[in-house]
């Protein structure tokens, strides 16, 4: 799958929202905010962290696609680093994968799955990530969950390819007048603590024209 639309940006604005536990947020912020400051400077992305004392907080990344995925990669790498440091006595093979869930409109899942499951199979094989699309819609919703698990690079590449499919879906929509170069793709990702793939907790991804 060609991810040039993501790599090159094509004037596409992407917003990724991550719902994270307080401990992970603290790690992303770093001592006196040095870690998140470095991420902002090196990636060029706008990174905002919600205020409050809730157990979970929102980290929002916004900017051109190539910038967003640079910041996203830095955050995923930081989480992987924290996992490794907390499991110093375990081997890399025994560590559970980073797991997250996206939520997309049910109407877009057909494009992601593809005829006979060919598209999602292609994404799995090309990225090495585990990807599962829920069969049922979420309660009181018109959306379905997509669970992704794997090593950082696999997750990053998988999310890129999912975004490409979503952008292609938008560009072929009868309501789209400007094509993917003008679309604003908004999504929300929740990164959860490493737990068994089948039992991971949901997060949401919303896409708006």
Automatic annotation (TrEMBL):
SMART domains: KH. This is K Homology domain-containing protein. GO terms for molecular function: RNA binding; single-stranded DNA binding. Keywords: Repeat, RNA-binding. Transmembrane segments: none annotated. It comes from the Eukaryota. Residues 12-80, 96-167 form the K Homology domain. PROSITE patterns: KH_TYPE_1. InterPro entries: KH_dom, KH_dom_type_1, KH_dom_type_1_sf. The keyword RNA-binding applies. CDD domains: KH-I_PCBP1_2_rpt1, KH-I_PCBP1_2_rpt2. Pfam families: KH_1. Gene3D superfamilies: K Homology domain, type 1.
């Amino acid at each position: 799958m060609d991810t040039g639309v993501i790599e090159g940006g094509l004037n596409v604005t992407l917003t990724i929202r991550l719902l994270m536990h307080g401990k992970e947020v603290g790690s992303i912020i770093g001592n006196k905010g040095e870690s998140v400051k470095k991420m902002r400077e090196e990636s060029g992305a706008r990174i905002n962290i919600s205020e409050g004392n809730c157990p979970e907080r929102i980290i929002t990344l916004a900017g051109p696609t190539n910038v967003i995925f640079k910041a996203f990669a830095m955050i995923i790498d930081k989480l992987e680093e924290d996992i490794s440091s907390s499991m110093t006595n375990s081997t890399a093979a025994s560590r559970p994968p980073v797991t997250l869930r996206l939520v997309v409109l049910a109407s877009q899942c057909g494009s992601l799955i593809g005829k006979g499951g060919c598209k999602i199979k292609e994404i799995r094989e090309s990225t090495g990530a585990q990807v599962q699309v829920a069969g049922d819609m979420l309660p009181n919703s018109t959306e379905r969950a997509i669970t992704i698990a794997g090593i950082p690079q696999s997750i990053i590449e998988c999310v890129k390819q999912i975004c490409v499919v979503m952008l292609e879906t938008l560009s072929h929509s009868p309501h789209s007048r400007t094509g993917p170069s003008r679309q604003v793709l908004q999504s929300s990702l929740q990164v959860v603590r490493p737990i068994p793939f089948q039992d991971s907790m949901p997060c949401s991804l919303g896409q708006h024209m």
